[in-house]
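Hi C.,

You asked whether I'd gotten around to modeling the 109-residue construct. I have! Everything is below, sequence then structure, no commentary in between.
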Amino acid sequence: MDVLWDDGGRLTPAEVNARLVSDRELAYTTVMTVLVRLFEKGVVTRQRRGRAWEYRSVLGREEQAAKRMNAMLRDGGDQSIALSRFVENMTAKERSELQRLLAARSRKR
């Protein structure tokens, strides 16, 4: 996903594979399999480019992170406890930013 997000466009499996930075090379079929699975889960879209598919992220990096955070909060048991633990693990700067965002949201209502 980082390769797709960093590029910002549509990439074929071969292009994704070429951009991957890894200690070991991945087979083209491995990259293709991962992209197909992401497509089946609705995380990426695809369209034909010649004989290959080109893939693009449905959501940006930040939107995807927010979606995962919301899912974890919904599925994580007691939301109050989960939120409390989440805030406890934030840095002071992150807590300040959260307070700023919450205050701005309250003003909009």
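If it helps when you're writing up: The chain has two domains: 2-57, 61-108.

Thanks,
B.
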